[in-house]
């Protein structure tokens, strides 16, 4: 059996600390793209309740009444439905505006994909993609390479990407396909050496075995929902072995 998602050996399982690995949920803000003073919102720091549970599917809920976050006083209900089927891990987000005024949010499924060796891993599907470079004050650039490889820190918000992005892991002889719906954008992140060393909940060498591909509502602009309106976004992670 192989692990397909990465969880750091130094991850801290003590709320409100976000877990360094798996799929933290950035909501109601991705990065600093919103009114909150700390990045990635607060959904990843709080406990959800389990509302439905079957062996292959779980439905989680976060009912927010607008009171605990001064910078985000707007109520919402967030449902996350996670299911496993064959070689697929499906995650669905449903946001309901339960407040009396429009709800505006950005979001991401901050998916930590495990790779065998970042030096040989490639990301396919973003060629000619426009991105905001987090390492250059969000300056906009275009990816010229057919496939994105890694030889240093990468932190990019790709805008309006295709809905299928693949992580090719030749050393592990596998391909992980990320298929998204509802999320226009995608983040690609690897902290590399210096940033890895600066994170207390991440091993110094672990940047070699992970890569984040994050379906997002981010640089293309936020979503605004009228009172009572609902938004849905989905991610389907599929695993295939490959000889490449
Ligand atoms: C990514 C961001 O989504 O998350 C990066 O683009 C950030 O800038 C990374 O460093 C990790 O964020 P955090 O808050 O979990 O350390």
Rg is 17 Å
Average pLDDT rating: 97
Strand order of the largest sheet: 2-3-4-5-19-15-14-9-12
* Class from helix and strand fractions: mainly beta
The third-level CATH topology is Beta-galactosidase, Chain A, domain 5
What's the level 1 CATH class? Mainly Beta
Number of domains: 1
Order of helices and strands: EEEEEEEEEEEEEEEEHEEE
**Helix fraction bin:** under 10%
Stretches where pLDDT is under 50 for at least 5 consecutive residues are none
GO molecular function, one term: carbohydrate binding
Keywords: Isomerase
Binding site for substrate: 20, 39, 44
GO cellular component, one term: cytoplasm
Provide a brief overview of the structure:
By secondary structure, the protein is mostly beta strands. The chain has one helix spanning 192-198; strands spanning 25-26, 49-54, 57-64, 76-85, 88-97, 103-105, 107-109, 111-114, 122-124, 130-133, 139-142, 147-148, 154-158, 164-169, 174-181, 185-190, 210-217, 223-225, 230-241. The strands form three sheets. Strands 2-3-4-5-19-15-14-9-12 form a nine-stranded antiparallel β-sheet, with no helix packed on it. Strands 1, 7, 8, 10, 11, 13, 16 and 17 form an eight-stranded antiparallel β-sheet that branches. A two-stranded antiparallel ribbon has the order 6-18.
């Amino acid at each position: 059996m192989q692990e397909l998602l990465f969880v750091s050996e130094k991850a801290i399982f003590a709320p409100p600390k976000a877990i360094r690995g798996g799929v933290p949920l950035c909501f109601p803000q991705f990065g600093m793209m919103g009114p909150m003073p700390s990045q990635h919102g607060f959904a990843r720091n709080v406990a959800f309740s389990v509302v439905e549970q079957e062996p292959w599917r779980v439905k989680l809920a976060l009912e927010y009444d607008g009171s605990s976050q001064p910078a985000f006083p707007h109520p919402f209900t967030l449902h996350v439905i996670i299911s496993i089927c064959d070689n697929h891990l499906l995650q669905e987000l449903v946001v309901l505006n339960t407040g009396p005024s429009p709800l505006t949010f950005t979001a991401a499924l901050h998916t930590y994909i495990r790779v065998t060796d970042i030096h040989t891993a490639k990301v396919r599907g973003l060629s000619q993609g426009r991105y905001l470079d987090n390492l250059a004050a969000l300056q906009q650039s275009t990816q010229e390479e057919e496939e994105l490889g890694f030889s240093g820190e990468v932190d990019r918000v790709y805008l309006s990407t295709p809905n299928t992005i693949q992580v090719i892991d030749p050393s592990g002889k596998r391909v992980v396909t990320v298929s998204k719906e509802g999320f226009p954008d995608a983040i690609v992140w690897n902290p590399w050496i210096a940033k890895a060393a600066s994170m207390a909940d991440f091993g110094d060498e672990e940047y070699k075995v992970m890569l984040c591909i994050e379906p997002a509502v981010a640089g293309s602009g936020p979503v605004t929902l009228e009172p009572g309106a609902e938004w849905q976004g989905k991610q389907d992670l599929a695993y295939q072995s490959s000889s490449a």
